[in-house]
Amino acid sequence: MTAQLNPRGDVAVLVPAAGAGVRLGPGRPKALRLLAGEPLLVHAVRGISFVPSVRTIMVAAPAAEVDAVRELLAPVAPVQVVPGGAERQASVAAALAAVPTGPEIILVHDAARALTPPMLIDSVAAAVRAGAAAAIPVLPVVDTVKEVTGDELVLRTVDRSRLRAVQTPQGFRRSVLTAAHAAADDPLTDDAGLVEQLGEPVTCIPGSEYAFKITRPFDLALAEHLLAESPGQATRTLSS
Fold first, then answer.
1. Which of 26, 147, 154, 156 has a CA between 20 and 30 Å from the CA of residue 94?
2. Helices marked H in 59-159 — which ranges?
3. Cross-strand pairs, 108
4. What is the C-alpha to C-alpha distance for residues 101 and 79, in angstroms, rounded to an integer?
């Protein structure tokens, strides 16, 4: 059954899904790799569709896969699919440019974070709605962190108490994200970095252990295990 998005919602979610996923090994583009029999992208879009304030979902797909992705997601939720770019930043910019008039809160969410709970997506949107220019979900860094030289010699031990691991979705006021992409020079790994370059404040909110990024074969195996242990996790609603 296809989820119905809220035509009066104030949130658009951009899903850059054009990456090759080299670290996951040979195969289809990463967003189309299977997790429990369904592509990562299907799991991600399904989770987004459970958030009541979402009005629009924009997917930036590999250029050669646009029609296939549109067909794949048709039974899951109403989505718009645009060709992505060679880099993540280009894919986000393409999706952002195609967002229709209406939503003033823009979330950018990795398809590879396929088990992200809808409650986290809703929390990021709520932080922007409450006045944040940008909001990102984070987790404390639990490992000891070393700064090293190019030849792997330790320079120093970094104080991890002020470090955070950043997840997605990352949320923004639409005007802020648009300005950040317009001013972007060098590619960065996340959109919050572009907003930081504008001098806008970025608010941190608590992340979720389930919102880990599926990057390596081990991550995929972990996600398979979690789904086997808790089959409802990928479809957990805000009320559960």
1. 26
2. 66-73, 88-97, 118-129
3. 14, 170
4. 15
* Rounded Cα gap, residues 129 and 146, in angstroms: 37
Domain span at 64:
11-134+168-235
Domain count, the chain: 1
Contact residues for 50 (Cβ-Cβ < 8 A; gap 6+): 3, 118, 235, 236, 237, 238
Look up tokens 């304030």; give the residue. 53
- Average pLDDT on 174-191 reads 90
Q: What is the CATH number of the domain that holds 74?
A: 3.90.550.10
Give dist(CA 85, CA 93) in Å, integer: 9
Helical packing angle, 174-183 and 191-198, nearest 10°: 80
The pTM (predicted TM-score) of the whole model is 0.93
Give a yes or no: residue 5 inside a domain: no
> Is residue 1 a part of any domain in this protein?
no
Classify residue 161: in a domain, yes or no. Answer: no
Going through 17-148 in order, the beta strands assigned E by DSSP cover 34-35, 38-39, 54-61, 80-83, 105-108, 134-140, 145-148
Q: What average pLDDT score do residues 214-224 get?
A: 95
> Do the domain assignments include residue 197?
yes
Which of 214, 210, 216, 173 lies closest to 191, judged by CA? 173
- Counting Cα atoms < 13 Å in the Cβ hemisphere of 210 gives 23
- In this structure, what token pair is assigned to residue 144? 């000891």
82 pairs with which residues across the strands?
A: 60
Residues 6+ apart with CB under 8 A from 82: 58, 59, 60, 61, 66, 94, 95, 98
